[in-house]
Amino acid sequence: MTSSSISVAIIGAGFAGIGAAIRLQDEGVTDFVIFERDCRVGGTWRDNTYPGAACDIPSRLYSYSFAPNPDWSHTYSGSTEILKYINGMVESSGIAPKIRFDHTVVGIAYDAVAGEWTVDLDGREPVRARTVIMASGPLSNASFPDIPGIDTYAGHKIHSARWDHDYDFGGKRVAVVGTGASGVQIVPELVKTAKSVKVFQRTPGWVLPRANSATSGRLKRLYRALPVTQNLMRSAWYWGHESVALGVVWDSPVTRVVEAISIANLRRQVKDPWLRRQLTPDFAAGCKRLLMSSDYYPALQADNCKLVTWPIARLSPNGIRTVEGIEHQFDCIVFATGFDVCKAATPFPVTGIDGRELAAEWSGGAYAYRSVVVSGYPNLYFTFGPNSGPGHSSALVYMEAQINYIVEAIGTLLRFGWKSLDVRPEVQDGYNADIQRRLRATTWNSGCQSWYLTDDGFNATMYPGFATQYVKQLKTVNLADYTITVAQTSGEPLATG
Ligand code: N01
Predict the structure, then answer these.
(1) Which residues contact 299 (CB under 8 A, 6 or more apart)?
(2) Residue from 202, 307, 328, 463 to probe ligand 1 pocket by mutation (most atoms less than 8 Å from CB)
(3) Top mutation candidate among 451, 454, 463 for ligand 1, by most atoms within 8 Å of CB
(4) Tens digit of pLDDT for each residue in 78-121?
(5) Is pLDDT at 497 greater than 60 in this prediction?
(6) Closest ligand 1 atom to Cα of 179
(7) What backbone phi and psi angles, to 5 degrees, belong to 111?
(8) Same domain, residue pair 42 and 20
(9) Stretch 247-251: mean pLDDT, rounded?
(10) CA geometry: angle at 160 spanning 159 and 165, to 5°?
(11) Ligand 1, atom 10: closest residue by C-alpha
(12) Which pLDDT score is estimated for 417?
């Protein structure tokens, strides 16, 4: 270990990076730095500021249990309020001085002799760190679709995750490509301002109504005065979502109930049988992310809105040409087409023991042990890593479990002055064989195309179980799972705070 190395490098100042930093600090590990490529914290909630951007998981569950917020204004909060929550955590925890903005990590490499990672930064001196936490997020790189002619389009192009707030939609003819979680939130807002909106749907999703109510001042005061009431509400949401897993994670009779609720919602909101047919999914509910919206179907039926289900053939200088030969002309095209998710790659080169490259090892689909560590890459930890995605619950419940595990592992390493913790390959292999076997029975692997799967159908994204099982497996670090390398030099000072 070199004297100039830091104990922990955290890559990314989104929910995961900020949460990890706070929990490290709570446990007395203060020698960490957060590298953030942007100039603000917030990750996906900083980037996704499109009109209508909100979370489709109740805020009381879509927050950290160690940072409860009695002031959520609604059951489901908007992106501005979520970003405020993240900023509030940064402020109250005092971690702001440890964030290095405009620091883009371009690669990390492990030095097995020193037991350190070299963190390479774009245009800056590299930094040495004993441990690294990858918190760069799976949904951080906006993805424009690979549609022929996309560069020839001469009008205005906006991606949902890079919204152009200076663009005035008033009087404009607008296209929205994509009808996933982002698309169904954007369309209801755009129909209020644009002259016309055409929505290009490739696959209709299952839409469930979302009842979003304001939290009264009295309830907020109760949450503040009696925090246990807030915990009870969080628990109620938690167990409610756990019960939904029975129909969303596994294709079961409960899935048919979810589908029946969605179809009843469609029937209630859409009277035109042809439009209904166009909006009816042909895959098991849950296979793609369930869409939560009570205003999407009404918006599609607004006088200035039209659903287009003909496949897109290409973009032309004036707009979008569909396969039956019609050219739809637009002033602006909004792409709600999702993200480049690293399912079979890494966001930048990650070099482990003996020069092994993680991107090469993951080329058939990413894998890890319990989603947080990969054999051959000691002292490197992932948040939102392989097979950590929830289909039915809050990503933050999963993230908090990852963070607690990571903080325990790092704390143990630093406390004992060990050089490295490297998960044993046979332990990792056994875990993944089990994960892939269990995934075969899930809705996600039941035949639809989604961002959860690689092009070959490998599921490197989702966790096939209840949140309770996921959290339980990360409750404690079992050192028997690891090869421990003890530092060669004895008597080194411990790096814990
Ligand atoms: O992206 P998506 P998203 N031609 O990948 C279509 C999270 N999130 O930004 O279904 C035409 O889900 C594509 O069509 P198809 C959440 O985890 C959370 O909406 O592949 N269409 C689909 O309709 C979510 O899962 C919240 O056939 C094309 C859409 O674009 C994730 O972000 C809110 C196309 C992409 O849907 C991503 O959601 C928002 C093409 N070439 C987002 N390429 C919360 O509330 C793609 N599409 C927490």
Answers:
(1) 187, 188, 191, 305
(2) 202
(3) 451
(4) 999 999 999 999 999 999 999 999 999 999 999 999 999 999 99
(5) no
(6) 23
(7) -105, 105
(8) yes
(9) 95
(10) 85
(11) 203
(12) 95
**Overall pTM surpassing 0.90 (yes/no):** yes
How confident is residue 2, by pLDDT bands cut at 50, 70 and 90? low
- How far away, in angstroms, is 377 Cα from ligand 1 center? 32
pLDDT at 221: 97
> Could you identify the atom of ligand 1 that is nearest to the CA of residue 160?
9
How far is it, in rounded angstroms, from Cα 220 to Cα 218? 5
- Residue 181 scores a pLDDT above 60: yes
CA–centroid distance, residue 182 to ligand 1 (Å): 6
Question: Pocket around ligand 1: residues whose beta carbon is below 6 Å from it?
Answer: 55-57, 139, 145, 147, 160, 177-183, 200, 202-203, 289, 312, 336-338, 449, 451
Average per-residue pLDDT for the chain: 95
Dist CA 31 CA 246 (whole Å) = 43
Q: Whose CA is nearest to atom 41 of ligand 1?
A: 145
For the chain, the domain total comes to 2
Nearest-10 Cα torsion for 257, 260, 261, 265: 170
Question: Considering the domain boundaries, does residue 221 fall inside one?
Answer: no
Q: What does 129-156 look like in DSSP terms, one character per residue?
A: EEEEEE---TT-SB-----TTGGG--SE
257: CATH: 3.50.50.60
Please give the pLDDT value at position 490: 45
d(CA 476, CA 117): 24
To test the pocket of ligand 1, the residue of 289, 296, 443 to mutate (highest count of ligand atoms within 8 Å of its CB) is 289
**Residue at a domain's end among 335, 353, 368:** 335
Using the mean position of ligand 1's atoms as its centre, give its distance from the Cα of residue 449 in Å.
11
- Domain final position from 335, 368, 399: 335
Among 30-34, 142-146, 237-241, 345-349, the range scoring the smallest mean pLDDT is 142-146
User: What length does the chain have?
Assistant: 497
Give, using CA atoms, the residue closest to atom 20 of ligand 1. 450
Q: Can you tell me which atom of ligand 1 is nearest the CA of 145?
A: 41
Same-domain pairing of 127 and 174: no
Nearest CA owner, ligand 1 atom 11: 202
Nearest CA residue ID for atom 45, ligand 1: 55
Q: In whole angstroms, what is the distance from residue 63 CA to residue 412 CA?
A: 27
Tell me how crowded residue 474 is: count the other CB atoms within 10 A of its CB: 20
**Are the CB atoms for 382 and 373 separated by under 8 Å?**
yes
Together in a domain, 26 and 118: yes
Average pLDDT rounded to a whole number, residues 137-155? 90
Q: 10 pairs with which residues across the strands?
A: 34, 133
CA dist., res. 190 & res. 193, Å (int): 5
